[in-house]
Structure formats: C-alpha cells, structure tokens
C-alpha cells in the first residue's frame, strides 16, 4: 500500500467564524492554518481564499498572496487551489488561480445540489474547458466527485483526450451522495485501474469516511471546509488538530504518512513551480 497522502481543506468558501472562530479569512490566518496542518502531516493544502471580512474570492492576486504566505511557512507543501470557488461565481472568476500554475487544482465534474436553494453549476462545457486549460498548463486536476455520474464524465473526457490518465479523484460523500461504506466502495470500484483516490466526508461523516479510506488504501482529506469539529460538540482548535487525529488513526491501522515529495511521486506531479508565475491570463480563459 502507498503511504497515506493527507490533504487539508483549511478554509472552504462556506464555513464562517460564527460557526468556528478558527476558520481563517486573512492571509496571516490562512498561513497559520496551512502551517498547522502541514506540521501535523498534511502534504496537500486544498485552498480557497477569502477577503478579510470572510467573503470568498477567486481573485488571482489574493491567491498569490495567500500562496506566498503558505510557501514561506511550508516550503515544500503541495498547494491545490479550488476552481470550484463559491456557488454562483462565473467560470472566468473560478479559473483565476490556475493562471498561477499550481501543481494541482480541483476539477468539479458535474452539477449538484449544494443545500437549500443552491446549485453548484458545472456544465459539460465548463468541465471540458477547465480540463483543457489545466492540461495545457500542466496542472494536474483533482477530479471532485459528488456522485457516480461525475466519474463517468471524467472517463469520457479521458477517452476524448481532454483529461490525462492516470487520473486522481476526490470522492466527497455527505453532500449529494450518502456517506456510506457501500457508496465509497462503489466509487472506488468505478474508477479506471491505475487511478489514485482521496476520500472526504462532510461533517460528522469526516472521520468514519477517512478511516475507511485509510483501511482501503486510498488517501484522505480533512479540514474546516468539510468539518469544524474534533469530536461531537467539540470545535477543532485548528486544522492541525484534525490532521493529528488522522495521523493517530493511520498509525493504529499501520499506514505510514507521505511527505509532500512522496505525494508528488504517488500522484505523478510534474512539479510545476509556483515561482514560475505567468503574468498574462491564457487567451482561452
Ligand atoms: N465551494 C463549493 C461550491 C472545489 O473546491 O472544487 C465548491 C468546492 C469544490 O468547494
Ligand atoms: Zn473546495
């Protein structure tokens, strides 16, 4: 079994300081939370950014400042910006962090209900366009899967040459599909052989899903974006505390934790450097 890659989704676009005062908004807070997760054993930071008042943004300059702050504190960590952003953002807004040439970025492979009246829209043209741009720029997509059809889209686009194999998937359970062992197994059985995968569970499903992922040989994601609690009724003091909990479970299950460089090896990252920042947006964005 490969060593375990832990991703920390430190911020998200939806959770607030009213829900947990440790949710980061400022550049300094985002750096602090990334560092806590990295020091605890995370090798990937899944990154959304906010303005100081908590408003989510995909602004390229804000991403650049947050990435610089994270790199100062965690020089070798893999930074994976979101291209999902927040519900209602345009494709153009959402794609901005890809212009910074990160090693990875998310690629949401379908439209889904996102609570109450919210719909997180990812049309086929959106997915294909994001996929093509990431491929052109050498940014490895983490394919976000909220139900099984999203795997089928990814497979279709790989056959069309829009996505490169081996693909890396992140199964998010507890938003649209149920967070059950059956659903996780079905996802794992549905991806092409040679793919890698991570599992994320929302809210109280985070730790059960992560524990299954560790035992099944996958990789895992924790963090405030998905869950604000360390245990029932106890708010997590930091993302690092959530990562520490995963590390304890992995140790009990005999799974070693990967370093960022080992994660690069496992995921086949080509090593885009965030120092190599292009100033001009791609004409196709
Ligand atoms: N905030 C959600 C609307 C991603 O990062 O790609 C989208 C999301 C997925 O969080
Ligand atoms: Zn996200």
Description:
With 285 residues, the chain is of the alpha/beta class. The protein has one domain: Alpha-Beta Barrel (TIM Barrel). It is built from 9 helices and 14 strands. The strands form 4 sheets. The chain has an 8-stranded parallel sheet with strand order 5-2-1-12-11-10-9-6, sandwiched between helices. Strands 3-4 form a two-stranded antiparallel ribbon. Strands 7-8 form a two-stranded antiparallel sheet. A hairpin with a 2-residue loop joins strand 13 and strand 14. The longest helix has 14 residues. The protein is globular. The C terminus is likely disordered. The structure holds (5S)-5-amino-3-OXO-hexanoic acid (KMH) and zinc ion (ZN). The site of zinc ion has 7 residues, from loops.
